[in-house]
Amino acid sequence: MRELLRTRTVPIPEGDRPRRLRANPHLRDLVRETRLHPAQLVAPIFVVSGHGRREEISSLKGHARLSPDLAAVEAERLAALGVGGVLLFGIPESKDARGEGAADETGPVPETLRKLKAAKLPLVLAADVCLCEYTAHGHCGVLDGDRIDNDATLPLLADAATAYAEAGADVVAPSAMMDGQVAALRAGLDAGGFQGTAIIAYASKHASVFYGPFREAAGSTPGFGDRKSYQLDPANGREAMRELDLDASEGADILMVKPAITSLDLLAMARTRFDLPLAAYQVSGEAAMIEAATERGWIDRRGAVLETLTSIVRAGANVIVTYFAADAAAWLREPR
Fold first, then answer.
1. What's the pLDDT score for residue 231?
2. Alpha-carbon distance 27 to 336, whole Å?
3. In angstroms, what CA-CA distances link 227 with 222, 233, 336?
4. Staple 293 to which of 49, 104, 243, 298, CB 3.0 to 4.6 Å?
5. What pLDDT score does 4 carry?
6. pLDDT at residue 6, rounded to an integer
């Protein structure tokens, strides 16, 4: 009886052989549904004031805080690889209670933007708009006691966005998760004559445990409490859709979800709901997990990077902010 079971052939209905199209690399390439391109990738760059300054970030392998001159060199490298853009985060020399340094036209972000604009690189120049790197307390908005004052924060965000647009930003990206921040930026930009500056809205940004390495890089760990009163509960998908709806109605040009890997369901939902371009941020903790597993020999780094990036595009993203932008772009340009 066992011999009969081993040799018995189970009939396959005529035509039901999907493996035919997996038989060799050329067939697999021909029918690939999701394609990843370097132009979809945006590389985060952390900038500081000064010249010739490079400060390695221990929790973000291969990344460093760079002075504007070295950031320009890095941007040239990224442009040569075909990366689509850069997203700048500034770390100031000093901080205050209100984060007013975010709008300082002599700060590291405006200075870097002017250098990159002058270089005429084939890159989209984007600047993150938040106060967390600039406040002494590390929160993303102005404090009223221990509470974040949403409405008092909005003019400061708008001032920072206008300063970045004036310095050459093509795109500004409000990430503070203040209600009405997109409308405030749009009004401020338009009033300043920057109607052509686009907004990437961090619309669905969850209070995630995966931001740890970023907070080291940006020096933005809150001095007390956490950010759960303004960032989304990771359990809430319908609320995320509401945030995306609101930012779209306020004039966002691109909608972002963050973190990427834990928000693939939200990306897919957003893709069916919105006609706007969608962005996803593969955040620092997601990158750190891949690096840590690679160092232990548990996974193939290149395979893990490209597979995760492909899954983000498959879920609906047009744009991916990723710390792997340079490596992924180089791999994608290699001949098959």
1. 86
2. 13
3. 8, 10, 45
4. 298
5. 52
6. 60
List of E strands, the chain = 41-48, 54-56, 64-66, 85-91, 124-129, 142-144, 147-149, 171-174, 198-205, 254-258, 278-282, 319-322
Q: Catalytic residue among 61, 117, 205, 228, which?
A: 205
- Catalytic-residue membership of 205: yes
Orientation of helix 237-249 relative to helix 264-273, angle to 10°: 40
Buried b (16+ CB within 10 A) or exposed e, 275-295: ebebbbbbbbbbbbebbeebe
Burial of 263 (0-12, 13-18, 19+ CB in 10 A): buried
Residue-wise pLDDT for 137-170, tens only, equals 888 889 889 898 999 999 999 999 999 999 999 9
Interstrand relation of 64-66 and 142-144 (parallel, antiparallel or unpaired): unpaired
Query: Within 10 A of 195 (CB to CB), how many other CB atoms are there?
Result: 10
Q: In this predicted structure, what is the pLDDT of residue 144?
A: 86
The residues of the chain scoring below 50 in pLDDT are none
Q: Which amino acid is at 210?
A: F
Domain ranges of the chain: 34-333
pTM reported for the whole predicted model: 0.93
Which residue among 115, 120, 228, 258 is the active-site one? 258
Phi-psi map region of 316: left, alpha, beta (phi>0 left; psi -120 to 50 alpha)? left
* Known catalytic residue at 61: no
